[in-house]
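From the methods appendix. Each design record in this collection lists the tokenized structure first, followed by the designed amino acid sequence. Records were kept in a plain field format so they could be parsed without special tools. The example shown here is representative of the layout used throughout.

RECORD:
FOLD TOKENS (145 positions):
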């Protein structure tokens, strides 16, 4: 069974290791290498906003999710699942729950994904549309209203 559990400052090391496990190959492909100093600072900046929750599968920590709720939209900032638990429908299920929450709240659901991240195919299949992009990422929205 999948559950979410809020993270605390004591959980920072898990999320930092998760961030590296999920992103190292993608970052190396995009940027040609993993700069540990830059990546540590990037993680610290994300962690400072600290809206992370654990993704638990049968009480085992398998990932994390970071969602921000704004007045007119919900933003999925990060969904990170350890590689050995990917491709099992866990992320899809969590995104479907966010879509339902967005519909109930009358809000759009937004996210950003690196262009080379295979998750972009999933997001398109789920109905997300690109509304902006930069050199490395696509900004996507699912209109729920």
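DESIGN:
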């Amino acid at each position: 069974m999948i559950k979410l559990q809020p993270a605390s400052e004591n959980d920072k090391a898990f999320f930092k290791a998760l961030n590296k496990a999920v992103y190292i190959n993608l970052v190396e492909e995009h940027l040609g290498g993993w700069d540990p100093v830059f990546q540590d600072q990037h993680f610290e900046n994300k962690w400072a906003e600290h809206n992370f929750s654990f993704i638990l599968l049968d009480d085992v920590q398998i990932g994390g999710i970071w969602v921000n709720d704004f007045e007119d939209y919900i933003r999925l900032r990060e969904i990170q699942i350890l590689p050995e638990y990917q491709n099992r429908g866990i992320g899809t299920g969590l995104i479907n729950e966010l879509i339902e929450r967005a519909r109930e709240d009358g809000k759009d659901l937004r996210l950003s994904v690196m262009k080379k991240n295979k998750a972009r195919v999933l997001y398109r299949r789920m109905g997300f549309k690109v509304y902006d992009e930069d050199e490395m990422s696509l900004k996507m929205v699912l209109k729920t209203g």
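APPENDIX NOTE: The radius of gyration is 15 Å.
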